[in-house]
Here is the input.
Amino acid sequence: MQGPAATGPVVLRLRQIAVAAAVVLLLATDTHPEPHDAIPQVPVLTAVWSRAADAPDPSLDGGGFLVSDAVVVVPDRDRARGLVLLDPASGRERARIPPDPAARSVHAYLGVAERTLVVARGVGYAPGADVVTAYSVDTGQQLWRRQWPADREPDVLGTHLAVTRRGVLVLRGTPTRLESLDLSSGLTRWRATAREGCQLATSESLDALLVTTLCRGAARIRSIDPVSGLLWSDDLAPPGKEERPPTPIAVADGTVAVTEADSFRLYSAQGRMIARIPESLWAMGFTADTLLYESATDQGGHTRLHALDRSTGRPRWTAGGVDVWSVEGSHLAAADGVLYSTWIGWPLPAFVLTVDARTGTRRLLPLPTTATDSRVIGAAAGLVYVQTALEGDENARLTAYRVRQRPASDQAAGVVPPAAAWPNACTALTEQDLTFLAPGYVPIPRRRTLSDAGLTAPSQCDFLPPAERGISLTLSLDWVAPTAAAAHDLLRAKECAQHQVSIEPVTWLDPHSLELFESTPEGSLRVVYVQQGRYLVRLTATSHSAVLRRIAPLVRQRLTAWPGVTLPSATGHHDDPGDQPSADWAAGSLGCASAPVAAMTRPQ
Here is the structure.
């Protein structure tokens, strides 16, 4: 868990575990705006620093990543369960914290307040003790350490903590015991024990711990101050069939939300219930005057994003099909009335999604990787932090980006191409191309919305056979890159990401066509990606691979008629380096990490 900062907007996502916690993240936007120009300006992500950082460690809270204005914490790739402290602005390494040999170090929880990092180590079914240790975020020096003997009965909940400005609250043991510690010394202020047989869920705000309990079917929420104890409490609706306590969420100024079976409540810092919202809650964000929350998926598989007035609970706007919480391990962040998250799905690249809290306007900020291997882990010090794993943990990186304004251009790196730059996907194949399957194929164009703007031409085309039992095909224009080289780099990044998420084979049919398998609700689906010039196209068919392999070269030929595609000159050389075959493609791998990492780590 991360201790929230004193002021500013906060965003949280629910954790569905026995003792739940909300992670608080802040993101300040660029404080040095570009000078006014007649050319329209758009926001882009600019890499500030990047360094090797191990992939998330499942034995550490948040994967071992913690982001705050005071420090960035990442897993130590050279020592299991160790931690590395980084300067948020520069990425400079400050110190390394080794694992505690006496602790039951299967799981660790992290929190920061008043330039103090607090680490709780310990979980059931492992030998050793429960240990809570405080370190200086500047030097890594140990400030204090508390150790408790392990219970005779394994503790399935583990050791959890809430770190606030006013102290540290530790929950441990069976039955659960709550102990309040002084932040500066680690000395015990007071202790309490939960009623036996009760289940708990927790979250921390700036100065208090939020605890919800479920005891014999009765649910209750309590706000607990580390110094004085109970601040306020209220009865909650029983959880129904889930048989677990409601999940509390707290933000810096004390505003509280708590989930119920099919709704959530909003409380003020003093315990006054502001509103009860009849929506199932997935994630929540707070700005100065707006509450943003994401509701559960509808029948179409999409979530909905809503904005409420924080003081009254009245609705402001609702956006459908947002899917702002789509990548496991990602966090949400907000600042200056803007919500930030990771976007996954169509199109192919990874994106940071921004949502204006006042209007609901959405923007996608492209990253130089694919969506399956990148995730936002937090935001602080005016930067947003993205963890990217490229072909295995040994190539994992943490990159800090700053949001800046640049002139809008369909060929600028880091900018979503305007609607006019997307050709009609139905022109990438013709009825004549498909006569080897059957004459009379019918193209069905499908339009999509990107970054809240409807594309001028359809970006997907379904080719339906004349006979009911014929082979159906789908062609999707998955990206328009600034250059052919950038498109080819993204195709190579897709290969790398695929190796991480699937054991199915990945095959290069030629230097610009990649065959792989993608998971769908219906099972594994064979897909061929085709790159020609700036364009990346995705092909699927209700048939075996031979059909796609035959169609892929036809698509590449048709794409030569699309704008900006250069052909070999009379001497046989390509004008665009992205159209040049690579010597190593036939070996089955195009060197996964090279091009994407180079793009990520280039300081600007």
Notes: The radius of gyration is 26 Å.
